[in-house]
């Protein structure tokens, strides 16, 4: 158990300079980068191309392959649908595109969501792909994320695996008895599984927690790994948002 | 319903982040009352659980499916303060590790999926269980109602927020109707799941349901021969003063929402910019919500845009806090009532 | 002064199940004692009281003269080391080294002293070679030994083990008993593995129905067939207690 399957799919072990950067530097860099992206006016198209190029460089340096990124980008899908629907649904003046009359404002709004969300998603994917979840949380703690939340997050990551595993088992058990979620009438079945799932997972988690308490745990993880960052490392991490900022400034000229 | 980057304008994102930070700060203080040594991993587990059940999709109507938001469930299981923290952690982890929900939209997401669902969910739960007899059935019904109502309310707030500060204009009325309609259906599913989940846990591990502490009775201990062991004198519960925390939270929230909103809006948002640049604003109405009181994220009748946006933030926060305060007040009254009842029973 | 004294301990779980009905027992410093009992006797419940994880419903627990209570948990948990039944509950860090370091690090140790503790504890259980491996890649027997090491690294005065021989193959079982016999700490070993108790512990207690029903030298207890049967304990087929007729 522990750092098992679910996160295995997120983190790609590696020894690139991106992997080696302290987590807090990467976190700040990604957040700052996303802020710059979001703050960019939607019709500054070249700037968005510049941001995308930046992320491609980071991915290349980190050795994260495009298929991995593309696969993980599917989380964006619901909002892609929304963005695609906007040109059809939005009010206002329309233009003809390929014989279809689309709302100008809707087109721009759809593009805006698509571009910014995609850049944000890819930046997060790269962050998670180059940083172990546990280390990333240590980084967040260093950035003054409150201890209680770090603790909740640590437990959550640890038990996400356990729960997903239990869930899969219960799903197999359900479906091997010819159950399939098809309509609302089956909600009670899922609901009962949810209750059982909760208790099963809790009792497992509780035992681990008791074992931790027995070894003197008082709610804060002892930090043994030294993750302090040098100026140089901050500088490296800073190149991402600073270059993005330069691109933004350039596009405004 | 996880909002990605670029969905809301910068001022809205920033103001929402301010509200989220303030809300989480208040909850961090409040959570200390709810959590002890043994229930600490509960919070992590509830977070993991909410995370997991958000993957349990259930069919709503043709072709669409919904998933649990989990706010009501979290609040009932671990208490409202810790509940907000759980959902906030879920959203943080989803944004950081799964790229689900934008980092810059984290404030919006915590506000909508965490604070709104927990406040509404727990408020409704307390209301229902307050007027119902103390029983497991009442807890079940309370859970159902709480979850059922929390989902469409959250969807409604989302729609309003989008109308106010979304990056595209929408037909507020139509969208609100559609959103609330679909989410009422999702809410029924969420209500059922929450009710059954809470009832199951209540049956097996009553100690794990925060919302059912009123049902707890002092345990009777016996010796091996069956004779009762007299209970130890009850340890006095230290009373913590929550008022300074609450007032501090309110002040900070108002300051943040007002000041941050004021500065954040110093640059016009994307839509207005485009409208101005392209000259749309002369022919098309820039926003459909311009007629609502908080329309365009500014207060009508206040000329200076920055002041008005700041003011809108303050008003929004005040409304939220009043709702939350009502819940907290009801919760306190209830505890006090029980304490007094317990004391008079002990005296008798 | 006793290393451990439990008096009048009664406990009911929140759902109303009462597991302990007034347990009395005491351990001298340096003793190795077996706590025998059938499933559901309340052994694990008792063990969880010894370092303050559960709070007694009635009665007290003293460790080296110090009463177990909320104010002294840190000290109590340094003194009493608990090895849980399932090593998978005990091991949760990414590597064995980090897992063993977790306890002493919680006690505030850092740097070379922390490293020394980890090294010594792993050497005691013969797992020094696995320091950098993830615990879930080890065999079950190895994981149990690492679990013991995680507790030894805290240098406890009393080592409490909950069913340490369960699910072990014969070789792992023997390796573990060698380790336990060579430790010079007070040991309380919960088990229903009677030969194991005989091999490791000079004294045994029987916990049944939430009370201690027998207390004496292990060979004597195991020789009392009628006592064992009454409390659903059984020697393996063909096993004879040396010294008993
Ligand atoms: N968390 C719990 N809630 C309620 N009852 C429990 C819990 N844990 C154990 N019990 C009950 O307490 C009794 C003693 O359990 P336990 O101490 O685990 O026994 P042993 O370790 O000797 O097998 C059993 O009847 C068991 O069902
Ligand atoms: Mg046991």
Structure report:
The complex is a heterotrimer of chains A (253), B (348) and C (245). With 253 residues, chain A is mainly alpha-helical. Chain A folds into two domains: 17-139 and 227-252, no CATH class; 146-214. Chain A contains eleven helices and two strands. Chain A has helices spanning 5-8, 17-20, 23-39, 45-62, 66-72, 77-89, 104-130, 133-142, 147-175, 187-214, 231-252; strands at 94-97, 100-103. Chain A has a two-stranded antiparallel sheet with strand order 1-2. In chain A, a hairpin with a 2-residue loop joins strand 1 and strand 2 (100-103). Chain A is flat, with a radius of gyration of 22 Å. The model of chain A is unreliable at 1-8 (pLDDT under 50). With 348 residues, chain B is mostly helical. Chain B has two domains: 1-215, Orthogonal Bundle (Arp2/3 complex 21 kDa subunit ARPC3), CATH 1.10.1760.20; 239-343, no CATH class. Mean pLDDT of chain B is 70; it is low at 60-64, 233-246, 259-306 and 342-348. Chain C is α/β, with parallel strands linked by helices and 245 residues long. Chain C is built from ten helices and ten strands. In chain C, the strands form two sheets. Chain C has a six-stranded mixed β-sheet with strand order 6-7-8-3-9-10, with helices on both faces. In chain C, strands 2-1-4-5 form a four-stranded antiparallel β-sheet, with helices on one face. Chain C is globular. Chain C starts with a strand and ends in a 15-residue tail after the last helix. The model of chain C has no long low-confidence stretch (mean pLDDT 92). Classes of the chains: A mainly alpha (253), B mainly alpha (348), C alpha/beta (245). Chains in contact: A-B, A-C, B-C. The interface between A and C is medium-sized, with 21 and 33 residues. Bound molecules: adenosine-5'-diphosphate (ADP) and magnesium ion.
């Amino acid at each position: 158990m522990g750092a098992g399957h679910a996160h295995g799919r997120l983190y790609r072990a590696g020894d690139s300079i991106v992997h080696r950067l302290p987590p807090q530097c990467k976190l700040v860099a990604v957040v700052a980068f996303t802020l710059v992206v979001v703050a960019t006016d939607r019709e500054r198209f070249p700037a968005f191309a510049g941001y995308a190029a930046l992320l491609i460089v980071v991915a290349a340096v980190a050795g994260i392959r495009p298929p991995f990124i593309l696969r993980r980008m599917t989380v964006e899908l619901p909002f892609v649908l929304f963005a695609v629907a906007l040109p059809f649904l939005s009010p206002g003046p329309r233009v003809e595109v390929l014989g279809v009359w689309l709302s100008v404002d809707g087109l721009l709004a759809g593009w805006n969501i698509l571009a910014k969300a995609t850049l944000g998603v890819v930046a997060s994917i790269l962050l998670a792909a180059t940083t172990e979840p546990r280390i990333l949380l240590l980084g967040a703690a260093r950035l003054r994320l409150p201890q209680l939340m770090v603790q909740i997050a640590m437990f959550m990551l640890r038990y996400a695996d356990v729960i997903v595993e239990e869930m899969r088992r219960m799903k197999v058990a359900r479906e091997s008895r010819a159950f399939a979620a098809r309509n609302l009438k089956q909600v009670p079945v899922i609901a009962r599984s949810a209750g059982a799932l909760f208790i099963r997972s809790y009792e497992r988690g509780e035992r681990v927690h008791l074992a931790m308490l027995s070894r003197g745990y008082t709610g804060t993880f002892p930090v043994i790994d030294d993750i302090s960052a040098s100026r140089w490392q901050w500088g490296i991490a800073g190149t991402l948002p600073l270059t993005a900022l330069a691109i933004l400034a350039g596009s405004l000229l | 319903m996880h909002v990605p980057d670029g969905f809301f304008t910068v001022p809205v994102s920033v103001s929402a982040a301010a509200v989220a930070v303030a809300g989480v700060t208040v909850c961090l203080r409040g959570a200390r009352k709810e959590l002890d040594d043994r229930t600490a991993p509960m919070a992590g587990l509830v977070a993991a659980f909410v995370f997991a059940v958000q993957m349990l999709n259930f069919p709503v109507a043709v072709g669409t499916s919904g998933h649990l938001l989990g706010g009501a469930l979290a609040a009932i299981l671990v208490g409202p303060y810790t509940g907000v923290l759980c959902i906030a952690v879920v959203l943080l982890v989803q944004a950081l590790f799964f790229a689900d929900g934008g980092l810059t939209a984290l404030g919006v997401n915590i506000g909508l999926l965490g604070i709104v669902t927990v406040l509404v969910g727990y408020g409704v739960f307390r209301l229902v269980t307050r007027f119902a007899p103390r029983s497991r059935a009442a807890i079940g019904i309370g859970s159902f109602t709480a979850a059922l109502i929390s989902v469409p309310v959250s969807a409604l707030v989302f729609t309003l927020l989008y109308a106010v500060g979304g990056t595209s204009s929408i037909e507020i009325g139509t969208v609100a109707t559609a959103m609330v309609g679909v989410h009422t259906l999702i809410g029924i599913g969420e209500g059922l799941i929450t009710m059954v989940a809470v009832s199951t846990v209540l049956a097996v591990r009553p100690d794990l349901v925060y919302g059912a502490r009123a049902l707890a009775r002092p345990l009777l201990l016996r010796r091996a021969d069956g004779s009762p062991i007299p209970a130890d004198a009850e340890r006095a519960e230290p009373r913590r003063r929550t008022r300074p925390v609450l007032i501090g939270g309110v002040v900070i929230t108002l300051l943040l929402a007002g000041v941050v909103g004021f500065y954040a809006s110093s640059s016009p948002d994307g839509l207005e910019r485009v409208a101005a640049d392209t000259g749309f604003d002369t022919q098309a109405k820039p926003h459909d919500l311009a007629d609502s009181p908080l329309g365009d994220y500014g207060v009508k009748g206040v000329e200076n845009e920055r002041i008005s946006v700041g003011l809108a933030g303050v008003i929004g926060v005040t409304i939220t806090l009043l709702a939350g305060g009502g819940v907290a007040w009801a919760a306190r009254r209830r505890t006090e009532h029980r304490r007094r009842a317990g004391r008079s029973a002990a005296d008798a | 002064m006793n290393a451990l004294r439990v008096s009048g301990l009664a406990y009911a779980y929140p759902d109303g199940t009462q597991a302990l009905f007034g347990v009395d027992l005491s351990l001298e410093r340096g003793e190795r004692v077996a706590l025998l009992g059938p499933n559901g006797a309340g052994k694990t419940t008792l063990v969880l009281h010894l370092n303050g994880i559960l709070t007694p419903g009635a009665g007290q627990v003293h460790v080296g003269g110090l009463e177990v209570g909320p104010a002294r948990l840190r000290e109590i948990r340094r003194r009493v080391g608990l090895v849980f039944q399932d090593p998978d509950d005990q091991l949760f860090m990414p590597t064995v080294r980090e897992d063993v370091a977790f306890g002493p690090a919680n006690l505030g140790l850092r740097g070379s002293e922390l490293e020394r503790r980890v090294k010594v504890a792993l050497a005691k259980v013969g797992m020094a070679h696995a320091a950098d491996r993830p615990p879930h890649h080890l065999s079950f027997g190895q994981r149990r030994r690492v679990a013991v090491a995680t507790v030894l690294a805290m240098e406890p005065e009393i080592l409490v083990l909950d069913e340490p021989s369960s699910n072990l193959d014969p070789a792992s079982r023997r390796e573990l008993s060698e380790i336990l016999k060579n430790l010079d700490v007070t040991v309380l070993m919960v088990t229903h593995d009677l030969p194991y108790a005989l091999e490791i512990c000079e004294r045994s207690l029987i916990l049944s129905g939430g009370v201690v029903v027998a207390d004496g030298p292990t060979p004597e207890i195991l020789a009392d067939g009628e006592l064992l049967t009454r409390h659903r304990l059984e020697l393996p087929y063909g096993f004879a207690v040396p010294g008993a007729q």
